[in-house]
Design a protein that fits this description.
Strand order of the largest sheet: 3-2-4-1-5-6
Radius of gyration: 19 Å
Mean pLDDT: 91
Oligomer: single chain
Structural class: alpha/beta
Largest sheet: 6 strands, parallel
Helix content: 55-70%
Number of helices: 15
Strand content: 5-15%
Amino acid sequence: MDTKHQKILILGVTASGKGALAFELARMLGGEIISVDSMKVYRRMDIGTAKPSPERRKQIPYHLIDVVEPSESFSVDQFLDRAHQAIGVITAAGKPVIAVGGTAMYIKALLYGIFEGPGSDAALRGRLRQEIEQRGLEALYQELAAIDPAAAGRIHSRDQKRIIRALEVYRLTGKPISAFQQQWTRQEPCGWTVIGLRRPKELESRRINQRVRKMLEDGFREEVHGLLAEPQPLSPQARSAIGYAEMIDCFEGKRTWEQTVEQIKINTRRLAKAQRTWFKTFAGVRWIEIGPDEDLPQVLERCLHLLE
C-alpha cells in the first residue's frame, strides 16, 4: 500500500454503507478502524447506533467504540485525544488507519483541528438554558434558523448543546457561527485520503427506512428499556441520540408506537440531510457516486481504484 494512503477516512450519511466498506477495506489492507461517531462511544447503546457486530470486532480491531458509560458526557476534545492516541498505536504497528463515520463535527475536528471561535460565556449559556426551559428548545432552534439558516441546516433540532453554542456565538459577536466555520475548513485535509459515499437521495431514504425496521426487529425497544432501567440516568447527550430520544418519548406516553416508528424514520432522514449539507463544505473528498444496482464488492473495487 502506498504510504501516502496510510490514513484513510470513509464518510457518508447514515445508512450509506460506509461501515461495511471500512470493514472490507481494513480486512484487505490489514488496517485497524477508528469510529468517528458521537454515539458509538457509549456502552450498551448498540442497536440504535448500528455498531459493528461482535463477530466483526473480533476480526478487525476497532477504536473509539464502547469507551464511556451512557450516563457520561463525551466531548469533541475527548474524541480527538483518544483518536490521536489510537492513530499513534496503529501507525506505530505499521498498519493503515481506516477512520469511518458520519458525525460531521468529529470528522471536521479530525481533519482540520478544533474550531475555537469566541470563548464561552457561562452567564449567557445559563440564560439560554433558562430560555429553553421557558420557551422550549424548538423556539430557540427556530431563532437560530432565522439568524443562521446555514448552521440550522447542519444542527439537529434536538441538539441542545450545539444550538446553545451557535446562539452564544451569535449573541457574543453579532456574526453567525457558520461564517467562522467556513473560514475554518477552507483547506485540504493534511495527511488524510478522504473518500465519501453518495447515493441518490430517494435511495438513501429507502435504506434509512430499512435500517429502522431492522433495528426494531433486532430488539431496539428492549435495548432502550434496559438503558432506562440502569441505576445511573442517561446523560443528556445519550438521551438526545436519534432513535433513543423518540423511544423514550414513547415510554413516557408522549407518542404512540406507530408515531414513534415514523418519527424515528423522519428524524433519521433529517439527520442525513444535515450530514449532506455538512459534507458539501468538506475540501478534498473523493466522492463515489453509488448507483442503485451497485453492491459492496463493486464499491470496494472503486474505492481501491481511488487509492491507487
